[in-house]
Design goal:
Largest sheet: 2 strands, antiparallel
Mean pLDDT: 85
Low-confidence stretches: 1-14
Structural class: mainly alpha
Radius of gyration: 24 Å
Distance between the termini: 26 Å
Strand order of the largest sheet: 1-2
Helix content: 55-70%
Number of helices: 19
Strand content: under 5%
Number of strands: 2
Length: 490
């Protein structure tokens, strides 16, 4: 009787808080509209709702974050700060939540592995280079933002992800959000005749551009495959329908990097199957080293400078593909313009770099006039468009080496575990993580997307899966799978 009464009082308490946040959310929305501050009506309710969920349904909030990721949109808020709504406010809540849980329960022993150590080293070096940066305040803000990405996406799963079913549920949340956001883009694009020229801005405000859209879509393919492969539901054919739908959307995104990702992922399956990972890594490093030496020798790279009048925006996709190799595609040539600047910057500060997030504010004096294009004024304030080169420029050669150690150790661990385990579920998950990793690494050869929530969040969550696949097999099925709620820690 006492137990039932306590349970009833507890439910009423939760209902009170539920009604209270509904009231506060409506009130914040009214205030925001009344004073023409729409961000108040968006951010405040989302923060209040996230606080409620983290108090009473922490694991559900973590899973729901993956639904929000594809739907998140960039928005400027007062103070010159930009954020991704609604995903990033939820990340802030989960970041604080994780710190409280760590203080209460400590870091799980299974979190002490090689990938965790390398990530800690990565974060530590970012802090060091941030202190020594040209603009240290900007770099330290970047470091803080990096923390609220890594900790919720990499460390928090140790408390919540207990088995393969948890992984499947999270991927289903992401797929649901992805399909909704993709349909929004496609419908907008359709009413503009699915034309090549209209594809860049068709998905605003959810999608920054067509590249962001296509890259998020392409990493959704392995997710759909994994959920289909591990599903026992008689209607699992629906996932094939979704798979075909995503490929259809990718085709009309007209993004070269997305097509390349699908090619490299197919190649990776053979690399994994025949134990060629070490050879692939060594070959990649050798090709990059030879290219750098040949281009740097007697300044051979200057011959790649475009003709200013010819490097223009192409009006159709076929022309864009053909112009890429002839120096007439403006996006490719502008990338080259910034890469040359990056090369010159490396010579000045090779060890500590210019500081994280400092490229945009420091690269102009290092550019060469002969490589300029029509868009070299960089109105979008975008970066160098090569994540590996950006690490070298902003964090020095140690920063690049640390990151390469992270991704190479992850690739080798996938291959080692794949050929060692006899568990079919583990093999499927290992193939999935390998495909996601290779796609993200491919994307970042001509983009800077580890800091983008739609890509970076999946990257760090994927590293968690890679480092802890054995945990799923060893986890006792009788263990509580709900995860710790904040109310348990107060």
């Amino acid at each position: 009787m006492n137990s039932a009464g306590y349970s009833q009082r507890y439910d009423l308490s939760k209902n009170f808080w539920l009604y209270f946040i509904i009231f506060l959310s409506i009130f914040a929305g009214i205030i925001g509209v009344s004073y023409h501050q729409e961000w108040i009506g968006i951010i405040i309710p989302s923060l209040i709702t996230a606080c409620y969920l983290v108090l009473f349904h922490s694991k559900l909030l973590f899973k729901f974050l993956f639904f929000l990721i594809p739907l998140s949109m960039e928005m400027e808020i007062p103070g010159g700060v930009s954020t991704d709504l609604f995903g990033e406010p939820v990340l802030w809540i989960l970041f604080i939540y994780t710190l409280i849980i760590i203080l209460k329960e400590g870091v799980p022993k299974i979190a002490f592995n090689s990938i965790s150590f390398l990530l800690l080293l990565h974060l530590s070096w970012i802090m060091v280079t941030g202190i020594l940066a040209v603009h240290p305040i900007i770099s330290l803000k970047y470091w803080a933002a990096k923390l609220w990405y890594v900790i919720p996406f990499y460390l928090l799963p140790f408390y919540f992800i207990k088995d393969y079913d948890d992984v499947r549920q999270i991927l289903k949340f992401f797929i649901a959000g992805l399909i909704a956001a993709a349909l929004y883009f496609f419908i907008q694009h359709y009413f503009q005749d699915l034309s090549y020229m209209s594809r860049t801005n068709a998905g605003k405000p959810i999608w920054r551009n067509h590249v962001n859209y296509a890259c998020t879509l392409v990493i959704g393919l392995p997710m759909i495959w994994y959920v289909w492969k591990t599903s026992r539901h008689p209607d699992r054919w629906v996932y094939w329908l979704l798979f075909g739908m995503v490929i259809f959307f990718i085709y009309f995104a007209y993004a070269r990097i997305a097509y390349l990702c699908m090619i490299t992922s197919i190649m990776y399956v053979f690399i994994l199957r025949f134990k060629f990972s070490k050879l692939a890594i060594l070959s990649s490093l050798l090709i990059c080293a030879v290219a750098i030496v040949l281009l740097h020798k007697e300044n051979q790279y200057v011959h790649l400078a475009p003709e200013y009048e010819k490097a223009v925006m192409q009006l159709d996709f076929e022309r864009k593909i053909s112009s890429t190799t002839t120096g007439e595609d403006i996006s490719t040539m502008e990338r080259l313009h910034r890469w040359v600047a990056g090369k010159n910057m490396i010579h000045q500060r090779p060890v500590t770099g210019f500081g994280p997030a400092n490229f945009y504010r420091t690269y102009r004096p290092f550019t060469l006039f002969s490589f300029e294009t029509y868009v070299s004024d960089n109105p979008d304030r975008s970066g160098i468009h090569n994540y590996y080169l950006m690490l070298w420029v902003e964090q020095g050669i140690p920063g690049l080496i640390i990151f390469l150690f992270i991704i190479f150790s992850a690739i080798l661990k996938i291959e080692y575990d794949f050929h060692k385990t006899e568990n079919n579920s583990s093999k499927i998950l290992l193939i999935f993580t390998g495909l996601i990793l290779i796609m993200i690494l491919t994307i970042n050869t001509i983009n800077d997307m580890i800091e983008v929530i739609k890509i970076g969040g999946i990257f760090f969550f994927n590293l968690f899966l890679i480092g802890n696949i054995k945990m799923f097999d060893q986890q006792a099925m009788t263990e509580d799978k709900s995860g710790p709620n904040l109310t348990d820690c107060i």
